[in-house]
Amino acid sequence: MDPILNFIDGHFVAPIEGAYLDNYCPRDGLVMGKIPDSSAADIDAAVAAAKRAFPKWKKLTRSERSDFLYRIADLIEAKIDLFAETESRDQGKPIHLARSVDIPRVIDNFRFFAGAVLHQQEKAFQSSELVLNYTRRDPMGVAGLISPWNLPLYLLTWKIAPALATGNTVVAKPSELTSMTAALLATVMVEAGLPPGVCNLVFGRGQTAGDALVGHRDVPLISFTGGTETAAAIGRRAAPLYKKMSLELGGKNPAVIFADCDLDVAVNTTLRSSFTNQGEICLCTSRLLIEDSIFEKFTGLLVDKVKALKVGDPRKADSFMGPLVSREHRDKVAGFVERAKAQGLKVLCGGESLKLSGELDGGYYYAPTILSAPDTSAEIMQQEVFGPVVTVTPFKNYEDAIAKANSTRYGLATTVWTQNLNTAHAAAADIDAGLVWINTWMLRDLRTPFGGVKDSGVGREGGDYSLEFYTEEKNICLQLAPAKA
Ligand code: NDP
């Protein structure tokens, strides 16, 4: 099988040092291809191409840039099955999930920002009769974009689309674990006639290619989605270079389930919020905090449903969960669970790796797992697992619920389950989180601010927040002369 190639200056090129990494298929554990193990030299070439393309790209009108984005969206839509199959093969998620969530959202990302940029507004301040201040929002140059492996193309295009729409050029480094749909995107960009150098994709490892991108002098802006520890390394590298940064990081998201909730809806949605995409979504709930009086009932219903979830071949329509993304990640998840067991937490279901039969026996499957955690002190209540593992913990009253919800270093998202509007409103204010869902989960409006508090991130993306992040605001003060008599 031909290796994936970098996409630089409109061409598919081999990595300069000629090194490649094996790309493993999570469903069977077999090598299915190679991706470039790019070096700083590849990043230099990509940044130089993006820098050359910038002056012309930024001078296009918004509607000209918008047309390119609409064209890219249409071309992806025409190949949605290919994109969905490829994403599933590379990441492990069920094809039906990639077909119904990931790739439609990729298309939406391009269409949304193609439209949004046409509505972006600048400001004017009439200071006095003869003094007018107005602002411009200018693109910043070469945007450095680094994305993770859990929602590969969905999160990559959440960055690429607004960066391009606002007139920046791009150098992106997807996760080394999931490069395949990004490589397909490059072919679509060629088909769409995107000018060479406007969007460049460099594949490889974070420690080498990612680090070179973050440290590059000609990249004034870094948008990163990934782990909290990686972000600290990126911050240490980028801050002395005064780069603009957006950091979308990890979470340990609570579901706060009050006794007056609609039990059926709460159980069914919590099932989804815990185990969709094998629990590998930054927004997945991982700590279920349940009011004492319904703890046994809620937990019993959930455990029964989890035991019935099908973990299997991601190509099959009835597989709710596929394999985890990699052997290392599966082993990391298993390690968390083993240590939790050793600390005395009780396994209510799952708690082990799964070996499927036949051609899938080398795949990285893990059973959906519920652990009972009486308090918040265990490692698994504090650290992000990022897999199909949740804990259930009872709470006594509102204050206890909020204290438990806020007992980690993270603050990305929460769900609150109650029929009482006053409780919902108070909890939404009191829980440390950038996103609060009340009686629902993962309902997204792309105009809304997206991001975390505490160690879950810095900055907001989405709608105007993205358009602002990818531009620099300049104020112009104009002194007018009085009209001649
Ligand atoms: P990582 O932090 O390991 O990696 C993210 C990206 O950063 C990858 O492309 C990685 O490359 C790259 N990278 C690693 N080290 C460096 C470095 N020193 N300099 C520059 N780039 C680097 O995260 P994962 O890919 O494991 O993704 C899972 C994490 O992402 C979880 O913590 C999850 O919560 C978080 N996430 C947050 C979201 C949010 O919106 N808040 C959404 C989705 C996920 P490489 O492939 O080599 O590791």
Structural notes for this entry:
- The protein contains 15 helices and 24 strands.
- The protein is of the alpha/beta class and 485 residues long.
- α9 crosses α10.
- It binds NADPH dihydro-nicotinamide-adenine-dinucleotide phosphate.
- NADPH dihydro-nicotinamide-adenine-dinucleotide phosphate binds next to α7 and α8.
What structural class is derived from the secondary structure elements?
alpha/beta
Which regions contain 5 or more consecutive residues with pLDDT less than 50? Answer: none
Strand order of the main beta sheet, please?
Answer: 14-17-18-13-12-20-21
As a percent range, the share of helical residues equals: 25-40%
What count of domains describes the coordinates? 2
Level-1 CATH class name of the largest domain: Alpha Beta
CATH-defined superfamily of the largest domain: Aldehyde Dehydrogenase, Chain A, domain 1
Which overall shape is indicated by the principal axes computed on the Cα atoms? globular
As an assembly, this protein is single chain
Number of beta-strand segments = 24
**How far is it from the N-terminal to the C-terminal residue, by CA?**
79 Å
What Rg, in angstroms, do the CA atoms define? 24 Å
Average pLDDT score: 98
Count of alpha/pi helices: 15
CATH architectural group of the largest domain? 3-Layer(aba) Sandwich
Largest sheet: 7 strands, mixed
- What name is given to the CATH topology of the largest domain? Aldehyde Dehydrogenase, Chain A, domain 1
What percentage of amino acids are in beta strands?
15-25%
Q: Ligands bound here?
A: NADPH dihydro-nicotinamide-adenine-dinucleotide phosphate
